């Protein structure tokens, strides 16, 4: 038996569809060539990413779109080469989808949202975002149906892409290079407000994560029920770890307050009891 005869061996035959050894061989070769080609293209894109770090997300989005388009073309080609009529197959799939449309509506919504994200590029790799439930994370992967976030607790969160399109999302990375945050603090009545302001500014200046420009500033917010309420505003370059920066600031403020005799009061109430016992006796 010759090699050509081996390739022509029929493995499955039903109606107009015939599957031969040649078809299986062709499918394997095409998939292998496609995988190798995509790997080469990925290396090509990585070179550009290293040269143009600022355009990293853009290059990666283009690569993802290209990869999906290539696989769609390859699948259609393989189906046609195997003897399957793509038009007939699509018609059958469409009829099936109509019947189960409500069940997979969310799936198609996520897929469509993934395409929107890749085209509009409102969400990109390494963006620091805050989703609607308050969770803050860094984008480490953008897929066609889902994306992955790495939270501040080093937890990988898988989020459907429709959440990014339909919900309100705060993208900290789309703001200025420096992002402003604040720490609230209250001091006891009678404290030297000028000294408190100086301590807060010094603590911000000594923190390595706080940007020197714009300069931090202090706001005397209010005369509270139990304290004089201050707020120190500062800018940071790395917003993802800002909660750690805030914690460091609070430690430093507490130490400096202790050294300078500035007290942080606790909520308190003065209760005045008026006795009516003596008045009742006189009557």
Automatic annotation (TrEMBL):
Membrane topology of the entry: Multi-pass membrane protein
Superkingdom, natural source: Bacteria
A Pfam family assignment: MS_channel_3rd
Keywords: Cell membrane, Membrane, Transmembrane, Transmembrane helix
Keyword Membrane: yes
Ranges where the Mechanosensitive ion channel MscS C-terminal domain occurs: 182-264
GO MF annotation list: mechanosensitive monoatomic ion channel activity
Family: Belongs to the MscS (TC 1.A.23) family.
PANTHER family, per database record: MECHANOSENSITIVE CHANNEL MSCK, POTASSIUM CHANNEL RELATED
Record protein name field: Mechanosensitive ion channel
């Amino acid at each position: 038996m010759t090699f050509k005869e081996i390739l022509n061996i029929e493995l499955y035959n039903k109606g107009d569809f015939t599957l031969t050894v040649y078809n299986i061989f062709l499918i394997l070769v095409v998939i292998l060539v496609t995988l190798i080609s995509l790997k080469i293209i990925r290396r090509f894109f990585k070179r550009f990413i290293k040269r143009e770090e600022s355009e990293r997300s853009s290059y990666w989005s283009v690569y993802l779109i290209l990869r999906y388009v290539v696989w769609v073309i390859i699948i259609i080609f393989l189906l046609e080469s195997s003897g399957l009529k793509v038009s007939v197959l699509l018609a059958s799939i469409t009829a099936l989808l109509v019947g189960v449309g409500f069940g997979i509506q969310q799936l198609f919504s996520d897929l469509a949202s993934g395409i929107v994200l890749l085209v509009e590029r409102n969400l990109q790799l390494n963006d620091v975002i805050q989703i609607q439930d308050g969770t803050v994370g860094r984008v480490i992967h953008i897929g066609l149906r889902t994306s992955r976030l790495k939270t501040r607790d080093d937890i990988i969160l898988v989020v459907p892409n429709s959440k990014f399109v339909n919900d309100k999302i705060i993208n900290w990375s789309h703001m200025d290079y420096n992002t402003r945050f604040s720490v609230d603090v209250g001091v006891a009545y009678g404290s030297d407000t000028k000294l408190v302001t100086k301590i807060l500014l010094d603590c911000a200046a000594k923190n390595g994560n706080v940007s020197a420009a714009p300069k931090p500033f202090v706001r005397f917010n209010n005369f509270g029920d139990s304290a004089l309420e201050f707020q120190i505003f500062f800018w940071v370059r790395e917003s993802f770890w800002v909660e750690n920066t805030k914690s460091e600031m609070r430690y430093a403020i507490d130490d400096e307050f202790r050294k300078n005799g500035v007290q942080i009061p606790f909520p308190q109430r003065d209760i005045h009891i008026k006795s009516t016992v003596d008045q009742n006796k006189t009557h």
